[in-house]
Specification:
heterodimer; A: alpha+beta; 6-stranded mixed barrel; 19% strand; elongated; B: alpha/beta; 6-stranded mixed β-sheet; 4-stranded antiparallel β-sheet; 6 helices; 27% helix; disordered N terminus
Amino acid sequence: MLPNLDRKLLRDLNRMKGQAVAVSLVMACGLAMLIMARSLIHSLESTRQEYYEAQRFAEAFAHLKRAPNSLAARVAEIPGVATAQAGVAVMVTLDLDGLDEPATGQVRSLPDFGQPELNRLFLRTGSWLSPGSRGEVLVSEAFAEANNLHPGDKLAMLLNGRRKEFRVTGIVLSPEIIFEARPGASLPDNRTYGTFWMPYKEIATAFDLYGAFNYLTLTLAPGAELRPVLAEVDRLLQPYGGRGAYGRADHPSHIRVSDEIRILQTLSIGFPAVFLSVAAFMVNAVLSRLLTLQREQIAILKAFGFTNRQIVFHYLKFAFVMVIGGAVVGAVGGVALGNKLVVMYHLFFRFPDLSFRLDRSALVMALAVGAGAAMVGVFSAVRRAAKLPPAEAMRPEPPANFRPALIERTGIGHLFSHSFRIAVRNLERRPAQALFTVAGLALATGILIIPNSFRDSVTELLGFQWDVVQRQDMNLGLVEPASIQVRDLLRQLPGVIAAEPFRGAAARIRFGHRSRQIGIIGTPADTQHSRVIDGKYREIVLPPEGLVVSTKLAEVLDVKVGDELTVEFLEGRRALRTVPLVGVCEDLTGIAAHMDLRALNRLLGEGDVINGASFTLDMAHRAEFLHALKKIPRVSWVGIKESLRENFRQTTAASINLIQSIYLVFAIVVAFGVVYNNARISLAERSRELATLRVIGFSEREVGAVLITELTILALIALPIGLLLGTGFAKGIVSAVNTETVRLPVIFTLHNYAFATMVVTVASAISALVVLRRLKELNLVSALKAPE
Amino acid sequence: MEPFTPKTSISDAGRKVFHVRGLTKVYGMGQAEVHALAGVDLDLHAGELVVLLGPSGSGKTTLLNNLGGLDVPTAGELRYRDFDLTCANETDLTRYRRDSVGFIFQFYNLIPSLTARENVALITEVARDPMPPEDALNMVNLGARLDHFPAQLSGGEQQRVAIARAIAKRPEVLLCDEPTGALDVRTGIVVLEALERANRDLGTLTVVITHNAVMAEMADRVIHLSDGRVLSEHRNAKRAAPSTLNW
């Protein structure tokens, strides 16, 4: 049978269920965030680890121009190397029915017989290539889905300039392309870029690489160090056009998953901490109120011999019930949110099976953190009650002491109405309660700023990248560097208004002990397409000599204008040059180095060559232009600004909308909960005062105004703080997200602030009105009786 | 909406303010039915000081609540001048309390966050024809404690602030529920003097409920209630001054 003290607990809880629910819900928001983030980290980490192990994902990677297969055996002998796998990886142009823009892809070789040693594929549908086959291809899932390709469909490719048709036998996944994007691109465009696998014999023959390899992957022996192995691999590959070996930490797909995990880690600490502190205070406020109400009950319990420990434990149980409620709702919410986010991850990450995996330790952590927060919240209140001598507790609490509020003491007190006076004096008497209500409302306002700021930042980034910097409509790359005369040929394509040549050269830029591998872009000094822009959006004219690097690259290398940089070209004659840094430019994605086209060609020593061009098009002739391009075999890739932009917009919009709806719900819960709690407590503590006002002739509306004035003052303080807080949150998150891949500018708009203010104001107002409806139930006659 | 007659004046003395016939108030249903008032007949006149006496449960407070518009009767007639209190809505009752009734409670019920002056001013701001808050507080001899908060005042002082608050709007009716119940004799007398003065100077119909029979001597009329009915009623030939009372 339930002990009677617990029966009292249940009945008391039932009477204060509105407040208990509000506390539990705010707590649930923090715990849901904690459980969601920890579980997603767990899901991503463990799924990736299992995937890597099952498919034997390599630990080091190297691209090179071409080396005989016999070299692979020498690589395998490097101390610390466990397995070395040589293969071919080449860029191809695709010819897809129904897609008028040219698509490109990377074809990788598979052993003619059997599975590869490393980076094994996972077959989603269809079948493997038949042994010794020709004319068959495996297609990456992301590309297949975006282009509606199925096993048995046909697919045409230009292999080294020759068009050939292939039959899709299977749709596959690879641990190398969990995140699949064109090399150098920061977001996927699965419609126009894909990865394909065919037998070594077929692809190597087509590219005159038979008996040779241009892509090397390897795993390390247990305990072996990566760095010396990479150095040794570089030394071996150097004569064969090696472009620098790198480990998983620099692998584009691996980095993107790791970045996401890092963001989740930030999320799993910051947000729960703030939500739980607000919840802790709410527990404190609710229990302090309860203890004041039950002073006499506590005294009687003590008088009848209940120990302090029993009494403390009894009141702690109130907090624990709320914590357990919060943990249950938080767990359910966290799992639901996690499941939704996992679905969103399918937009970016391809695993054989990425499903939500609940991190059970997060549940325990959530319960512990929630209980801890509640304990902090109730400890002082409960201790005060326990310390009360029974006789003193029997007497009602002495009347509250008031004094003129600070703002009145400034001498402008006579300007205020009575309800304003009542409000500010009450707030000043209970600063902690006011403070945490302000904190809760500010938090609600703040978290609303984040998603919109993120959205505005992305819009700004796109505008900068694609309106300010890249003014062309389209870029194309050539298979091999070609004479600058090609430009004249390209200019004659239908619809071309302007064409500008460029030269991209892979290089390692070094300064002191810091270095980065990068493509140096050479353009005409007065380029109107891929413009070089400084931090104030002014155009930089490339000087006839020297490098202009992006701010981020300058920061990474720790260089300033005037420094001499060492540039080691990783292609052609692999020239090693010293080049002065002549300028720093702004670039929001990746890291960049620009040079005058002729200066770059001089350094490379290859004469006037280009390996790509950019175009401004007459959009009326867009289709003809693309059609003509498809017929030029030397084109290796094409990037169309509008489709990249649209794709980018859709992907980011989907994820930002999801995040925004989550934050919206959280903000509403917090604003509603905090205001509800505050108003309920005020109403309860001051029911006698409010009833007296009613008795002496104030209308319900006028009495409500006293409470509303208090809440309005709190909201007016909270909203600006919330806007500042949100600005800080967004700045912090953006700087945590900023990497060498992408740097979001911090953008705040009036619309963003107005939206946050409006949501919190409406949620608070509705919450206050819900509570004020209780004024109707105020018992007027009770005001005439003895104080409680 | 203007259900109330104009303010009273001394020359109105003797005019009927309340008309009460067969007033019945029943709480609860069936077995638990309690007849708090079981048919009260009563007339109350302007300028009178009436003391309602009776033991606990005799219906004093219920009658006062009905007169003050805090509660509506179950049956019977209850009119304030021409205003029928039995079928008034909440808005009319609020208006009635605001304009015509002053309440004084046993436990003062001041707003703790407002000073003495502000507690009074709170009412004068919404009243139709109030006196300055300072005048009201002077009438109860609290002119020196205008800016003290309730917690800084003694019980008697708090009750006098409550009286000032009640009379500042020049109500036609002053309803007092055990106004000295929480006070010692000496302080109680000071409070009664303030009440008596308000009644005399402003001509306000004053109804005081108490179970202290000594207070009956300061009344014009004394009404005994028992079991929800008027048991007896008598008129004092001469009102005793509060200072002569002793209990």
